[in-house]
Write a structure and sequence with these properties.
The structure holds 2 protein chains of 2 kinds. By secondary structure, chain A is mainly alpha-helical. Helices cover 59% and strands 0% of the residues of chain A. In chain A, helix 2 packs across helix 4. The longest helix of chain A has 15 residues. The relative contact order of chain A is 0.11. The mean pLDDT of chain A is 94. By secondary structure, chain B is of the alpha/beta class. Chain B is built from 12 helices and 4 strands. In chain B, strands 1-4 form a two-stranded parallel ribbon. A two-stranded parallel sheet of chain B has the order 2-3. Chain B is globular. In chain B, 38% of the residues are buried. Classes of the chains: A mainly alpha, B alpha/beta.
Chain lengths: 100, 219
């Protein structure tokens, strides 16, 4: 069975939804943050993809595009010892309260 | 980001009343922590946002229009895209090569990235949502003609369709067929015929009579 991301040729009768959404600020930011880290040589596009492809299938399918980036970024930053899951948990809770 | 003010940029979230998903909150948290620890500067993130905003399909359109009017340039573009676009003042990101494929009366190329979303961002800006959609990734390689029909392009059976699956290290730009009736148009006028979707290959370039429609459309 092909890996989750290897979907070329999988059956689908869904029409192509050609509408586009305006990026939310956090999506611009996430794209840019990954760009800045790549620019600094701290991660590359292959690592980003590996992190995305390692997502649980249900998460991969339900997440939006930049939610997948967020998941991969977290995997990589924790793996590289730059951030810990605990501090991301704590700060994300603060972020949630700030925008609640 | 709608506001580059320093205070606001500390909170690159959203309007106070919008809902942030769990992954969005975690992305914002990671940015805050990375800036706080000095891993990246807030300014670097802002610069990247501006860099992304500055890239639009207009760059690709100018490259195509030049290739239509200058056969020598076209030959160089097809042989060594990186060097050719550099002649026009465009630079590609360092980590991916670009190949340009030419659509003709006999052969039509269309680009997909089945694995994710690889795209010639340097010349076209970020990919449209549909390019990243599961439906396009699944279907483009098995029923490209049906997919193109959804975009309004109905190719005759005499046209061979080649679907190209891009990779992270090699991105593709389609050089669309120069439309009939565009003889004598200036390079700038020609560039207005070259839509983003025609450089992905899901449509043709516009006919000269369609440009007024295009100006009011989103593609």
């Amino acid at each position: 069975m092909p890996a989750i991301h290897d979907m070329g040729g999988m059956p689908s009768d869904q029409p192509i939804d050609q509408s586009s959404h305006e990026w939310a600020d956090w999506e611009h930011m996430t794209n840019a943050l990954v760009g800045a880290l790549r620019h600094r040589g701290m991660m590359n596009v292959d690592e980003l993809r590996r992190g995305i492809e390692a997502m649980r299938p249900d998460e991969y399918h339900s997440a939006t595009y930049y939610e997948r980036w967020s998941a991969s970024l977290e995997t990589l930053l924790v793996e590289k010892g730059i951030l810990t899951t605990e501090e991301i948990d704590a700060r994300a809770a603060e972020v949630g309260e700030r925008w609640a | 980001m709608t506001d580059n003010h320093d205070h606001e940029s500390e909170h690159p979230g959203v309007q106070p009343d919008s809902e942030l998903s769990r992954r969005a909150r975690r992305a914002i948290a990671m940015r805050e922590l990375l800036v706080q620890k000095g891993v990246v500067a807030a300014e670097e993130v802002r610069e990247q946002i501006e860099r992304t905003r500055a890239r639009t399909p207009a760059h690709g359109s100018r490259v195509v229009a030049r290739a239509w009017v200058d056969p020598d340039f076209k030959a160089r573009l097809l042989a060594d895209a990186r060097a050719a676009v550099y002649e026009l003042g465009y630079t590609l990101t360092h980590d991916a090569e670009l190949a340009v494929v030419e659509n003709t009366d006999e052969v039509h190329h269309v680009i997909v990235c089945t694995l994710c979303s690889c795209y010639p961002t340097s010349l076209l800006g970020p990919p449209p949502d549909w390019y990243k959609s599961f439906a396009y990734r699944k279907r483009a390689v098995v029923e490209p003609r049906a997919v193109m029909r959804e975009f309004g392009l109905d190719l005759g059976d005499h046209v061979q369709v080649r679907v190209i699956d891009s990779a992270a290290d090699l991105r593709y730009l389609v050089l669309p067929r120069r439309p009939v009736g565009s003889d004598g148009m200036s390079e700038g006028e020609l560039a207005a015929l070259v839509t983003r979707d025609s450089m992905i290959g899901v449509t043709s370039a516009l006919e000269p009579s369609q440009t007024r429609v295009a100006a009011s459309g989103t593609r």
